[in-house]
Amino acid sequence: MKMKRYLILLAAACLLQCSVFAQEKTDSTKDWKKMAFGEYAGGKKNKVYTSWGGDGPLLSFATSVKDNGVHVRNIPRFTFFVNIGTNFNYDFNKNFGIFTGLNIKNIGLITKANDSVKLKRRVYTLGVPLGFKIGDLRHGRLFFFAGGSYDLAFNYKEKQFLNGDKKHKFNEWFSDRTPLLMPSVFAGFRFQPGFGLKVQYYLNDFFNHDFQETVNGVATQPYKNLEAKMFFVTLSYDFGRINYHKDKYKHKHHYHAESNF
């Protein structure tokens, strides 16, 4: 009985402490939510500003996969991690601006040569986009963007499955199995409260046709006749950084925010 009372008192104390902590954090939490999901404060024109964001849930696949001219079944590949980035923006006015940045993406494809064999291949890339944006850049209600990007492929991973069981996998840094540099073009739009839709198409092949490896003493080129052009659709996200100030002599609440995207 005493143990039960102690547990009740401990639970009550924890609830009280959590309540106090939650009360102290209410204002800052509301401020962050207001910034991220309610307000879009554009940067000043003719001044560089940063915004944080990147590609969120990403659905990648090849427009067509062929091995020696024969079509190979291609299964869309869904990823959530790790797709992050930072953009550097410059707005000429409230409706037109340009941007660049650094973005990490996880892209790849899944192929099934037959009902028994399945291959999963992916690559992490570090991309530098260069694009423009048109629309409501001050309030962020809706604007469109487009441009190009150069991606550096820095990590390749491949998994092989036989009848649903994983038989082999390997991971290579700066692998020669894919091109080191992967150029692409993209387009999309951004809307409140900080999300958008983007499509991106890679101009070169996913595989390096000149790659060679030695298997059982025999030199082979596994990707020589394998064709796959990558394409992905992503629900991108982009929220601005914000500095929150309290000045009891001048303003009760004052926001100074850097623009999204």
Automatic annotation (TrEMBL):
<keyword id="KW-0732">Signal</keyword>
<feature type="domain" description="Outer membrane protein beta-barrel">
    <location>
        <begin position="75"/>
        <end position="178"/>
    </location>
</feature>
<protein>
    <recommendedName>
        <fullName>Outer membrane protein beta-barrel domain-containing protein</fullName>
    </recommendedName>
</protein>
<dbReference type="InterPro" id="IPR025665">
    <property type="entry name" value="Beta-barrel_OMP_2"/>
</dbReference>
<dbReference type="Pfam" id="PF13568">
    <property type="entry name" value="OMP_b-brl_2"/>
</dbReference>
<feature type="signal peptide">
    <location>
        <begin position="1"/>
        <end position="22"/>
    </location>
</feature>
